[in-house]
Amino acid sequence: MKKNRSAVGLVASFLSILSAVRAGAVPTVDPVEGLWLGTATTERETIEVGLEFRRDAQGTLRLLLTQPVANYFGLAAQSPVRRDGDTVVVDEMALSLRLQGDRLEGTYPGPNSKASFTRTSWLPAPAPIPGIPAGPEPVWQTRLNGQIFASPAVFDGKVYIGTTGGVFNAVDGRTGKILWAFAAGRPVLGTALVTAEAVFFTCDNGYLFRLRREDGKEVWRYDLGDSRVSRVIGHPQVFDWDWHGPKPVLAKHDTGAEVEDQPLVAGGRVFAGNRGGGLYALSLATGERLWKTFFWGSWLESTPVLADGVLYVGSSDLRRVSALAPENGRVLWRTDVYGWTFGTPLLVGDKIFAGAAGGDPYFIKHVASFSMLDRATGKLLRRFPLPEVPGAHQWGIAGSPALAGDLVVVSTIQGGLMAFPVG
User: Fold this and answer.
1) How far does the chain reach from its first CA to its final CA, in angstroms?
2) 37: Cβ contacts below 8 Å, ≥ 6 apart
3) Of 66, 77, 83, nearest to 28 (Cα)?
4) Pick from 109, 115, 174, 244: CA 20 to 30 A from residue 137's CA?
5) Which residues pair with 264 in a beta bridge?
6) Lowest model confidence (mean pLDDT) among 152-161, 272-281, 350-359
7) How far apart are CA 309 and CA 287, in angstroms?
């Protein structure tokens, strides 16, 4: 009799749960929920990708993305997951997959990269910065004023650079001593052009200046007709940063997003990055797009450099220095330097020097440093960490390193110059 009562109770409980499910009171488990690990493949690269599908407090199915190459670990997509039969779609990411048992197959932004995933019990996590030798201390350091986002320009052993403090400076490349300074009056964010007799630079007051290189005396200024330059310096909640100074730009092609740094012209081609996450190769003669390599959602604000048949370029959020084949854009290697790599890598012999900026708060961890890599393999050989600046949103190196004799000179966002030995 007891057993019969128990059986009746179990049946009643089951019917009660079934009724609740039908009424929508108890959520059903979607077979896509859980962890998935796989790859996304373009013509030029294959990357590892992790997906987690789970419901939020309101019962809406959401995606958390793990993409180690772009430093995403559990990044929540803003738009919900759409389900229709065996299809899984996230509109915000242009992600479209089909559930096939224990596999997800389809396309992934890259754009439209072939993607394949299998169920997993774990997803990749951020790796700690490895214990790499810091290398030698700076030979000299010089504090200027304001902030510096421009790259140093070196000519005849002297370093020329402007600041957001409205001053343009000439500095001795051997000692760091300030040789002369010119008060331009408004922020100077662009890299200077230097010749044997003159220094040219643009200023946010709308002028192009020409100074005598020997003593910084003004020769002339030309009104560019843009006296109201508006820009946004890095901010924790405003992502439309614009601290690039005016530079000459070639008009061959609409890349679909802002081209912030100077393109490279070499071998009958134009190589240019943009804020749409791509590096383009265009025909110099016709403007035809020859190839595009995707940088997985990261802006590309670094001018590429070409040497011995290899393109080298920094990035932005990707945090990586990359080497690519110039004929087709195939990725040869990418090396994480753990911070924003806005500048152009400096090649010296078989080594590459790169500066990185740090920042907080931000949705990706960025740590500032000055690094040296092996040019052939991309191996990180030494990394000189630059300290976090309390109360600042960004710090470290925004511009490109420059060679001054046997020293590598870098500018810091905090308004200083530093010189490191090459060896």
Assistant:
1) 90
2) 48, 49, 50, 51, 117, 118, 120, 122, 123, 124
3) 83
4) 244
5) 271
6) 272-281
7) 21
Q: Which residue has the tokens 């304001």?
A: 146
CA distance 55 to 30: 10
Tokens for 232, please give them. Answer: 């946004």
Which residue is listed with tokens 């710090």?
A: 395
Q: Which residues pair with 418 in a beta bridge?
A: 141, 410
Distance CA 232, CA 240 (A): 7
Q: 170 — phi, psi (to 5°)?
A: -115, 130
pLDDT at 135: 95
Name which residue leads in pLDDT, 246 or 101.
101
C-alpha 10/C-alpha 7 separation (Å) is 5
Phi, psi of 6 (to 5 degrees): -65, -45
- The DSSP code for 2 is H
Given a contact cutoff of 8 angstroms between Cβ atoms, the answer to whether 99 and 14 are in contact is no
The answer to whether 88 touches 100, Cβ cutoff 8 Å, is no
Pairing of strands 167-172, 178-183: antiparallel
The owner of tokens 């009562």 is 5
Q: How high is the pLDDT of residue 301?
A: 85
Give the CA radius of gyration of the chain.
26
- Which phi and psi (to 5°) does residue 373 adopt? -120, 155
The H or E element containing residue 291 is strand 289-294
3-state class (DSSP) for residue 5 = helix
Instruction: Report which secondary-structure segment, H or E, holds 20.
Output: helix 2-23
Beta carbons within 8 Å of 89's beta carbon, 6+ residues apart? 81, 82, 83, 95, 96, 97
Q: Which element (helix H / strand E) includes 87?
A: strand 87-90
- State the amino acid at position 92 in one-letter form: E
